[in-house]
Amino acid sequence: MKPVVGIFANSSQVQKAAGSLREEGFGQVTLLTPAEPKQQVERAVPTEDMEQPGMGPAIGGVIGGAVGIAGGMELGAAAASFIIPGVGPVMAAGFLGAAVLGAGGVAAGVAAGQALETSVAAGLPKDELFLYEDALRHARSVLIVWTDDQERTEAGEIMRRAGAESLDAARERWWVGLRSAEEEQYRLKGRDFSKDEQCYRRGFEAALHADLRGKSYNAALEGLRKRYGNECKEGAFQLGYERGLNYYGSHQKADGSPNVDLRTA
Fold it and tell me: How distant, in Å, are the alpha carbons of 27, 182, 247 from that of 23?
């Protein structure tokens, strides 16, 4: 099973998409959407130093019952909330919410995290997680449906008709929002951004990969070589990586939340 993902700008669009998916027999549907109240979620988040980074330990606890909390959608499961630093409280409704509840009813901390990581998070592409985080940061909702290869086209078309933005479009929108500032910084170093942009951007995005985020260039070098070959040694790539690392760090510290994030351990 592989995920098909759509990003939605408003609740009516995502409700339409979720309803259509359910009507067509797609059972493993998850909604990620900004949640309130923030203070209620933060009080439930464990903050012990022993907790390790990862999507699972970010789970603070279940603060909702029926999925009706999530805008009236009937996803056939429960809803749970957790903190993503730089994003804030996020609700997981449907298949993912049920996985959290499956840790033992009123799940909390590592127990919830273990259920989440083993059943759901491991199936999410690690090079896309920063796009989910960016969408949620900008008050958009992320709808995920797990399908087999034969159903992927149908699921994607259902989302598109409901108004979903594809991940490819979201990636371009995200970069357009950063491009001017990155170009200015690059040119201050006497370099030609128009020539080096693609290499620089790959370095920037590499720093946001779930296996590398938070790691210095030297610490990440072995992983970078495996993914990018000799390109990772290019000056443009290294500068992009350092800027991506700063970008990631600034968002992690933005709201004072525990140092955990939306990724698998």
Answer: 9, 44, 40
**Cβ-Cβ contacts under 8 Å for 215 (sequence gap 6 or more):** 223, 245
**Dihedral, 61, 66, 72, 74 alpha carbons, nearest 10:** 110
* Strands of the sheet with 2-8, listed across from one edge: 2-8, 141-147, 29-34, 88-94, 78-84, 59-61
Domains of the chain, residue spans: 2-166, 170-252
Tens-digit pLDDT profile for residues 75-129: 544 566 666 666 777 777 776 554 444 433 333 443 333 344 344 445 677 888 8
| β-strand partners of 3 | 146
Summarised one tens digit per residue, pLDDT across range 128-182 is 888 988 998 888 999 988 888 889 999 999 999 999 999 999 999 999 999 999 9
Name the DSSP class of 2: E
Residue 92, H or E segment: strand 88-94
CA distances from 57 to 51, 88, 263 (A): 7, 15, 10
CB 222 within 8 A of CB 185: no
58 and 100 Cβ atoms separated by less than 8 Å: no
Separation between Cα atoms, residue 257 and residue 104, nearest integer Å: 25
